[in-house]
């Protein structure tokens, strides 16, 4: 789950990271009131779940209340890479002497949290990684001991070799960020930039946190952080129903059990010249209700002209899937053709159940995909 | 022969009294797997299906029945704890089927396993099926056939699809292994490929990757340097949009890396044929194998 | 540092341990008001830094407000093993179905935090340890992984083999207690008893925590937990001055550098028929001010008839010590004789400085001790 | 020969630019100890006393000068971190002089040391002095003399007292070791006694204990079972009141255990003479040694 900058900063604050004050506003007057509360100058920052806000004009430095009003008015409602800005963060502007990048993510290879830090702060770190990878320092944190003092300080000294005070501040920030990462079950946490003012104060100016969806169950409060307005309506419905769903642009609705098979099915639709309307994994469980929910969500898309079930039964049993499909089709008024391919555990029982219906059966994946594309027209 | 299991494999099932745990324990036993005990805390003293004794802890199952392998079917919040328990009790192979385990939990468990020399498969995986030896997990036994082809995959059902086609083509399997779709997993492509390369029964193998991370690229390098056996690969997710998690927690193109195109390029650069469709895997393998 | 039950419970509450409500009262009316707030029945519990409160009549179960008044009146001001009761804890009484002991301490041999648990709760655990040690279960916690779920649950199942729900509650309590122990830098943390009500609710009924003095620097708030009224006046002065000091009953005041040598000096005073007035370690530093403070504290005790310096210089240099002694004697009006023995680093310089004064020099420890006893009379 | 050090010992001093660190570094060098570098973060590039290069990290000292031993003089809040750093950099012997280190910090550091095969002495200790070889810590060099007697002690200055008397009696020392007065320490009596027992130079040894814990009792058992060399013990704190911390964090009689009386009883039961006064140690040793 991606969260907004201001939400990430709330988490950072709870873990003692030095975040300048700030509050969000949904309207221009609110923004001005906040600016008056903090005193000028302030930053007006769009809160959208995408990068590149600055380039898009979504971040403004304001020296007067008129500036704030103009900026808030311009930014609220702005579209940034398909995301509409509903909120702006008003935060006191600070003088910047130097900028750093501090980030952490889950590293698949070391199987640890990887700390990355660079004195090239305030710019796109992906670009730094491509152009000058030697300017990014990395350290995989041993979960048994955490980020040790000498490791953190050593990293700080790589960023500011001649300033022990700043190196200590940077190191302490990394240690707090690690505690925040683990404590919040993040999958990514970035401060970009971490800055020093001319008087040597450190501030986390920008914050980015992605939360591990698998760990949300132990952070019940985080559910409130989800920006429902930024989420696709059908994706939200699928999530609530416990389905893995991604909306695409095609006309062949896909219901597949298993993420890998679902991706392969999409790829195959494309291979045969069709366009998949979605990714949908009905998961390892075989609850017929899930199938009903899945069908409902897919059929809400008026572009969908045919539906393709591709089920290979392992933990999901084909008879349960068949029951779900039958229950769904009986209870719904479905006008698009449905192609069903069932193989695996209890496939005989499953096919026997389907035989009595007017669904289009298919033996293989390729046959099913071709038939669905054909029926979608 | 097979990888990771042999005739001495004695299984304890953690979460045996749950719906999925119970169902698949029956399937494992039906296949001939030596399931010696089950564990569900609070159910110690019960007997599953009048056959398998249930204990409160893995330690008891190890002590009383010599279990050396655990298959885990417990809910996500308890899954990492179950892995810790199995490893602590002395199991040397742990297969965690559970989907939805917090990644930080797996990060914590990894050094514990390393210290004890324990191999973990998964989590969020279908497990392993070594035809004629053992079935550890949820791979459907009906589709496998004993033979010389190894198969390793990040996926579940896509694995079955390929096994099905191998079997249909008369190509039996030495071991079918699903390593799981999460970002942090116990056994990865490299481990599996190293094992297949060393396994005398395995004459050729298939690797099924997907978007996210660079495990396929690393495997490609290894294969180029060390593997003489024929290998065919398939990568799922060519049409996946960037930044979206495609079901599996690990299946995501982020920051422009982990794309199917990159992986296919790396595999082909290492001389490994990459099938365009699942259907092409078997013919490609037959083509380069020329046996 | 030992803290009171109510303070330990505040720490426990912060770590999520199930503690029944409760507040302290310093007067009878306050106690009655609190009992009215909580509702009857309540427990009235003396807050003193010693064990055996129950046996001494310092803990009362009260079913009426008259009971509360009588109990508070009796307990406030009561002397328990030399400790005067200044405060009582008023806490709702709960029905007890079963009692358990859960404790943790630093184990010197495993170098870990040792969890100890027993179904023999509510009694003195030292007695259980002596009579039936097999009824206490122990587990040394690996600091790298903490108290793992299966370890905690396994311990819970040893206490209640046939009740998985209670075993889980006990296990979760142990995990929280471990987090509290490490988080608060405890050297001892006990819940005795942890009880279950007839309906299966778990409560930490009594709490004992000792804090690691060495770690107080990172818990600035804990300084407020110190019960100054319960501390000996001179011991408090010494602590504030950074000196390790323990008041004893004799007449030979001892100033020694190093705890082992200080103990050996006390033992030697006793060996030669004298009585040491105190234990005092002036520590590894050689700040002359410390010597002044040490002398001031010791001379406040009218019993002290002679003063014995026993200094073997390692990290503390004898010349610094000599300067401190001279500075102290010059600035103070000292009427008791002072025996000084200096050996070790810079001993020549130290002795040279002392030679010009009217202090009683001694070459060896035994000579110094005998001379001091003789001068004390 | 000596225990724990030899001619290859190359020392880095952590906290070399502090008051105590500087003072004792000079003393160590004056004794002939091979101090190759110092560490004070932020002072990298300086040269201590125009002799010893100072670095920001132990890793640099190890890399550039082959330091294999660290002596730590940093304040309590940084002491455990300094031990982690020294061990991580590859030092195999770490002597932590610092007093007042939080116990939980030492609990955390212990497995890190064990994994890396690092010996820690202390914290809260005077360190080690091996006459003619090296001085690691704050034991005053003026009082030692090369010879055959080993000495191990939980105390600081009480150790000097005994060394002083040994030297005065003409009994030189193989190694004088202060293991420290904290509850959790790296090297304990057992480790030291095992080493003295194995050290060919050490012909007899002295053990100086104090109240708190049961390390002396455990040592007594070990000596009874394994040690043929003459041993004399002394226990400080016979007059210490229960429940009071006597300076050292570990010197406390708690719950009625850890008393001097118990320790003396256990030592005597193991056949080890216990001196009544520090003054009696040397005569007792001479008596049983009968050389």
Strand content of chain A: 15-25%
The number of helical runs of chain B is 9
Structural class of chain B: alpha/beta
Q: What is the β-strand count of chain A?
A: 18
What is the CATH level 1 assignment of the largest domain in chain B? Alpha Beta
Total DSSP E strands of chain B:
13
The proportion of residues forming helix of chain A, as a percent range, comes to: 25-40%
Tally of structural domains of chain A: 3
Structural class of chain A: alpha+beta
Q: How much helix, percentage-wise, in residues of chain B?
A: 25-40%
Query: Roughly how many Å apart are the termini of chain B?
Result: 21 Å
Q: Find the CATH superfamily of the largest domain in chain A.
A: Succinyl-CoA synthetase domains
Q: Tell me, briefly, the overall form of chain B.
A: globular
Query: What name does the CATH topology of the largest domain in chain B carry?
Result: Rossmann fold
Q: Could you report the average pLDDT of chain A, rounded to the nearest whole number? A: 92
CATH topology of the largest domain in chain A: Rossmann fold
Question: Biggest β-sheet of chain B: count, sense, barrel?
Answer: 7 strands, mixed
Strand order of the largest sheet of chain B: 3-4-2-1-5-6-7
Q: Largest interface, per-chain counts?
A: A-B, 54 and 65 residues
On the 0-100 scale, what is the average pLDDT of chain B?
95
Low-confidence stretches of chain B: none
Describe the structure.
The complex is a heterotetramer, with two copies of chain A (377 residues) and two copies of chain B (291 residues). Chain A contains twelve helices and 18 strands. Chain A folds into three domains: 21-92, Dna Ligase, domain 1 (2-Layer Sandwich), CATH 3.30.1490.20; 98-224, ATP-grasp fold, B domain (D-amino Acid Aminotransferase, Chain A, domain 1, 2-Layer Sandwich); 233-375, 3-Layer(aba) Sandwich (Rossmann fold), CATH 3.40.50. Chain A has 377 residues and is α+β, with helices and mostly antiparallel strands. Chain A starts with a helix and ends with a helix. Chain B is an alpha/beta fold and 291 residues long. Chain B is built from nine helices and 13 strands. In chain B, helix 2 (58-65) packs parallel to helix 3, helix 3 (76-89) packs parallel to helix 4 and helix 6 (189-198) runs parallel beside helix 7 (215-226). The model of chain B has no long low-confidence stretch (mean pLDDT 95). Chains in contact: A-B, A-D, B-C, C-D. At the A-B interface, helix 8 and strand 16 of A face helix 4 and helix 5 of B.
């Amino acid at each position: 789950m991606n969260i907004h900058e201001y939400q990430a900063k709330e988490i950072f604050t709870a873990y003692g990271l030095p975040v300048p004050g700030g509050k969000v506003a949904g309207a221009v007057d609110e923004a001005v009131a906040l600016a008056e509360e903090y005193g000028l100058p302030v930053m007006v920052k769009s809160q959208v779940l995408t990068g590149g806000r600055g380039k898009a004009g979504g971040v403004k430095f304001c020296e007067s209340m008129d500036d704030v009003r103009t900026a808030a008015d311009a930014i609220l409602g702005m579209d940034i890479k398909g995301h509409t800005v509903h909120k702006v963060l008003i935060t006191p502007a600070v003088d910047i002497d130097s900028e750093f990048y501090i980030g952490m993510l889950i590293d698949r290879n070391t199987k640890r949290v990887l700390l990355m830090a660079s004195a090239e702060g305030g710019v796109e770190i992906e670009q730094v990684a491509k152009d000058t990878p030697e300017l990014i320092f990395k350290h995989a944190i041993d979960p048994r001991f955490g980020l040790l003092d000498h490791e953190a300080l050593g990293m700080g000294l790589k960023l500011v070799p001649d300033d022990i005070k700043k190196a200590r501040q940077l190191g302490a920030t990394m240690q707090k960020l690690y505690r925040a990462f683990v404590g919040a079950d993040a999958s990514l946490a970035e401060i970009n930039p971490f800055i020093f003012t001319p008087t040597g104060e450190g501030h986390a100016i920008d914050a980015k946190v992605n939360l591990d969806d698998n760990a949300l169950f132990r952070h019940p409060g985080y559910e409130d952080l989800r920006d429902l307005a930024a989420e696709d309506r059908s994706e939200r419905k699928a999530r609530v129903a416990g389905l893995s769903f991604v909306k695409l642009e095609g006309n062949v609705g896909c219901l597949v059990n298993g993420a890998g098979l679902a991706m392969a099915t999409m790829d195959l639709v494309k291979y045969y010249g069709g366009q998949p309307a979605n990714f949908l994994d009905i998961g390892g469980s075989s609850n017929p209700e899930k199938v009903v929910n899945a069908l409902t969500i897919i059929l809400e898309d008026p572009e969908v002209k045919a539906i393709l079930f591709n089920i290979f039964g392992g933990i999901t049993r084909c008879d349960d899937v068949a029951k779900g499909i039958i229950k769904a089709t009986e209870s719904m008024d479905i006008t698009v053709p449905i192609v069903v391919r069932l193989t695996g555990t209890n496939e005989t029982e499953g096919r026997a159940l389907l035989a009595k219906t007017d669904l289009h059966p298919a033996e293989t994946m390729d046959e099913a995909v071709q038939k669905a594309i054909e029926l979608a027209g | 022969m097979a990888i990771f299991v042999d005739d001495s494999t004695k299984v304890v099932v953690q979460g045996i009294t749950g719906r999925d745990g119970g169902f698949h324990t029956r399937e494992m036993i039906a296949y001939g797997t030596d399931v010696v005990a089950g564990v569900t805390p609070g159910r110690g003293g019960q007997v599953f299906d009048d056959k398998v004794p249930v204990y409160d802890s893995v330690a008891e199952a190890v002590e009383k029945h010599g279990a050396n392998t655990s298959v885990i079917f417990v809910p996500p919040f308890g899954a990492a704890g179950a892995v810790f328990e199995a490893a602590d009790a002395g199991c040397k192979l742990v297969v965690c089927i559970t989907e939805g385990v917090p990644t930080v939990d797996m990060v914590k468990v990894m050094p514990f396993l390393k210290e004890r020399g324990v191999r973990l498969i998964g989590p969020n995986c279908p497990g392993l099926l070594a035809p004629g030896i053992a079935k550890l997990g949820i791979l459907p036994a009906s589709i496998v056939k004993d033979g010389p082809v190894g198969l390793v995959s990040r996926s579940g059902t896509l694995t079955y699809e390929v096994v099905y086609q191998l079997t249909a083509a008369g190509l039996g399997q030495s071991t079918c292994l699903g390593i799981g779709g999460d970002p942090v997993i116990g056994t990865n492509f490299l481990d599996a490929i190293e094992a297949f390369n060393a396994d005398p029964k395995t004459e050729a193998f298939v690797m099924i990757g997907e978007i996210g991370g660079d495990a396929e690229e690393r495997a490609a390098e290894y294969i180029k340097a060390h593997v003489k056996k024929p290998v065919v690969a398939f990568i799922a997710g060519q049409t996946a949009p960037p930044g979206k998690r495609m079901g599996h927690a690990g299946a995501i193109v982020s920051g422009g890396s982990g794309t199917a195109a990159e992986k296919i390029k790396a595999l082909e650069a290492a001389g490994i044929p990459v099938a365009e469709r699942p259907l092409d895997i078997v013919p490609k393998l037959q083509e380069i194998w020329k046996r």
